Amino acid sequence: QAFGSSCLCFGGFHSLPSMRRAARLLGSLGSSELSTYSSKGYLALDKVRLSAASLSAARQGLDSLLHENGAALPEQLVSAHLPSEVKGSTVRGNSAFSDLVKNDTILDAVSDVLDTEDILCWGCQVFCKLPGEGRAVPFHQDGQYWPIEPLETVTAWVALDDSDRHNGGVWFVPGSHKMGYLPHIQEESQDAAISFIVDPEVLKSLPEPEPVEIKAGSISLHDPVIVHGSEMNRSARRRAGVAIHYMPSRCWFRRDVTTLGEKLGGLKLDYAERPLVLVRGKNQNPNNEHVISL
Prior knowledge:
By secondary structure, the protein is an alpha+beta fold. The strands form four sheets. Strands 1, 2, 3, 6, 11, 13, 15 and 16 form an eight-stranded mixed sheet that branches. The longest helix has 17 residues. It is globular, with a radius of gyration of 18 Å.
């Protein structure tokens, strides 16, 4: 992975099934879905949806979030789940997203992928592409920026609007999470939200990207190393979604390292005060700092 093997994790640790998991019997995801996630590096969960009430609350929260953070780019609303008074918050957050990161429908699926009932949410970013103007996010790999040892983390992408190939939905390169970190280059564009992107020449040699087209309230999951990106929103419809980052609490969120992405010339991200929100179970790694509840 991006970092060495010095993770202070509990080797081979897996908690016994909790009362919650026992109540769920075989879990939220079936063996075929887990196999697809393992082989492709992503999984669209059309059958796993937020309740109408949860979706409505999140969409209302988005309206408030946009209003309260008018100076921020609508594609880059980081830490939307944190109240502004919490140390490490970056925008004026909204309680709807505090609730969303703890939503059992999402956590049940995440628990199955991570194989644990002890889960930390370490990030929540809202991406809102307005009609006809939302910027592209060129193909890239997230995990090179994430200081987690080992890199056992999953992103739950929650659609607040219908998301498809026409309004700037996400595309994934299937199986690319098994290829390691690929060469990236700096390429600036006023129409793009990021500039450190997979080398276009390398991209040509990869499998064809596949779009994830899901309805509002649906969820997709993806691996930290998978190559993914999205185009501009050229439609007359908004495309809003929430990327929620989860990790097993047995892993270590490092605050004392330079990430691989920064070393290679990408973004420099400051994780010194990033809160880790305990959303299920217990914190199993004593080296994890700034662990909070919401």
